[in-house]
Amino acid sequence: MVVLQFLSLSVNILCLVQKLPQIIRIYRTKNVNSISIASVLLGETSYTLLLAYNLWKNYPLSAFFEYIFLFLQDILLLYALAKYSTNTKDKPTDRSKAYCGIFIFCFYLLASLAGFVPAAWMNLSTILVIPIGASSKILQLRTIISNKSAGQVSRIGWAIAAYGSLARVITNLYQTGDMALVTNLLIGFILNLSIVIACTIYSQDRTVKSSDEQRKKTT
């Protein structure tokens, strides 16, 4: 079906660069403001589980191709967070968490590909992905709202994520019929869109505050 092929192709292309704007912004500014490391770790957990599950089930590559790139981009994001996170009394182990996460995710994926992960766990993992993925996005949303700033969070990246989730809802309904995956993707779409809205609101607030401060200086 032409529509499904277009959706799959567009998701795969967009996911090649989904997290790159945020990663590039971090490397340029050397600042990880408003990015929740707990959110990134949970998000990468869901990507790792989904990638391993889809490979284990031998689903068509077009149905999950983007997870390969999302997995790799989150690894780069975790490395950036480890490199530029400032250790404080409140967050003394951010760097170690990121490095440990990178090792665990890579090890799990290799173990699943080698067939060392039990089938019972592989089936259970798709159910766990729903609360894990949702928690990841809720934590990031809470961080933006509590800081009242989008910081280095990329609105473009989350908009791509929202589109990808919605497109994958449609393609999975037709290609796999796996309702666990569909439910996870639908929840992901709603939360991704919420983050885009929050970034838009607080980016505008910061712009207004900056313009007000400049006016005060000139008067």
UniProtKB/TrEMBL annotation:
Keywords: Membrane, Transmembrane, Transmembrane helix. GO terms for cellular component: membrane. It comes from the Eukaryota. The chain crosses the membrane at residues 35-56, 63-82, 102-135, 180-202. InterPro entries: MannP-dilichol_defect-1 (IPR016817), PQ-loop_rpt (IPR006603). It is found in: Membrane. It is a multi-pass membrane protein. Its main location: membrane. PANTHER family: MANNOSE-P-DOLICHOL UTILIZATION DEFECT 1 LEC35 -RELATED, SOLUTE CARRIER FAMILY 66 MEMBER 3. This is Solute carrier family 66 member 3.
